[in-house]
Write a structure and sequence with these properties.
The protein is α/β, with parallel strands linked by helices and 221 residues long. Helix content is 30%, strand content 21%.
Length: 221
């Protein structure tokens, strides 16, 4: 039986809309009682990378990112959705790339890249030219902001238009009822992309060993 880390169990509770330690304690009390949280805060203050130590992030950061950054055809990258655990992505993983981020929340700007857009993904076309990006990473956005069929249709259509022919589209999502508001099979514009067998994992859809069943779907235009 898979043993999930305390961090993964906490994320599952949050993603499943259950009470968590973060939601039930103030930050100062949590600093005094949760050493892992205290370490993250100190590293953040010092400007050091603050990775999220979960299996899905391990797969993303140690398998998926290295594969794409090694491809000479991948030069321009859009990363969708920013938070404290993405602040180091540009300097650590994409320093040699034209790296863009997008998030509708103004507070997320400090966690994004140097080229950051404050807007929902559905409005991507207003901020970049068609066929501009070589890779779009849309991880943890479906079910966390893309919550209706209309939002999903508009967002995936915008990604398709902004991705060059032959470009790559990565969709990461949690396969649990609380975070699958619309069946992906019902989203017509997702079928604009072609499933792509990701060589390091040998499949186009990879289910990580996490309690929140995080999935990575790989596509090409």
């Amino acid at each position: 039986m898979t043993q999930f880390s305390p961090r993964e169990q906490e994320i599952y509770r949050g993603n499943a809309r259950l009470d968590t330690a973060a939601s039930s304690r103030n930050s100062l009390l949590r600093m005094a009682t949760d050493w892992r949280f205290a370490v993250r805060v100190v590293r953040y203050i010092l400007g050091l990378p603050v990775p999220m130590h979960t299996e899905d992030r391990r797969v993303l950061e140690s398998i998926i990112f290295p594969y794409f950054t090694a491809l000479t055809e991948v030069r321009s990258v859009l990363f969708v959705g920013c938070d404290w655990y993405t602040r180091h992505y540009q300097p650590v993983f994409f320093a040699a790339h034209e790296f863009w981020t997008i998030d509708p929340a103004p507070r997320a700007r400090k966690f994004g890249g140097r080229r950051h857009v404050v807007a929902p993904l559905e409005a991507l076309g207003r901020h970049c030219a068609d066929e501009y990006f070589d890779l779009i990473v849309c991880n943890g956005v479906y079910g966390f902001g893309l919550d209706t069929l209309t939002q999903c249709e508009q967002a995936f259509a915008a990604c398709h238009a902004s991705l060059r022919e032959g470009g790559y589209f990565l969709l990461g999502w949690d396969d649990i009822p609380a975070r699958t508001p619309v069946p992906l099979a019902d989203v017509a514009n997702l079928r604009l992309f072609q499933p792509f067998t990701f060589p390091p994992l040998g499949t186009w859809r990879y289910l990580t060993e996490t309690p929140y069943r995080h999935v990575y779907d790989f596509y090409r235009k």
